[in-house]
Amino acid sequence: MKLPIKMPSRDVYSWDPFDDVRRMQEYMEQMLRTFPALENRYAGETFAPLTDVAEENNKVIVTTDLPGIDRENVELSLKDNVLVISAAKGKEEETEKEGYLRKERSFMRYYREIPLPEGATEEGATAQLKNGVLTVTLPKTKELTGKKILIE
Questions:
Q1: Which end of the chain has fewer CB atoms < 10 Å from its terminal CB, N or C?
Q2: Which parts of the sequence belong to the SHSP domain (predicted)?
Q3: HEC states along 34-88?
């Protein structure tokens, strides 16, 4: 949509003022999508980290990017075949020089729910956080095989 919006000639009785409001709202949403920095600034500070899920013979490997997060700030849980990753980090800076004091605080949260293939279990699972990359390895129980149904 381009601005300025030109009003087509219409009958006054068919004019809906809310159409213009909806068009403007769509334009603003498009602008926020075009400039991700604006979207992140005004959206919530909870991010969904990038995640890869790989299924091997007897294990499931989940790799997630968590830049700048310490391992004591990461929580992992598995419920109903869904791996929940929650992490947070906060920072406070204070600079005091002659004539002024500057304080800055920031807080960031990562949260992601990852559905896992059937058979993944937390028994014997391992997790490693190295260089901002979390790797969770979950063993799989025996392969689930479907039974054949014979047609009579």
A1: C
A2: 41-152
A3: HCHHHHHHHCCCEECCCEEEEECCCEEEEEEECCCCCHHHEEEEEECCEEEEEEE
Q: How confident is the model at residue 6 (pLDDT cuts 50, 70, 90)?
A: low
Cβ 129 vs Cβ 66: under 8 Å: yes
Beta bridge partners of 120: 140
Write the pLDDT tens digit of every residue in 61-96: 999 999 888 889 999 998 888 899 999 888 888 888
Say how far apart CA 65 and CA 128 lie, in whole Å: 12
- Check residues 65 and 2 and name the one with the higher pLDDT: 65
Architecture of the CATH domain 48-91+108-144: Sandwich (2.60)
CATH 2.60.40.790, the chain: domain bounds: 48-91+108-144
SS3 38: helix
Average pLDDT over every residue of 101-114: 86
Residue in 31, 21, 16 with CA at minimum distance from that of residue 5: 21
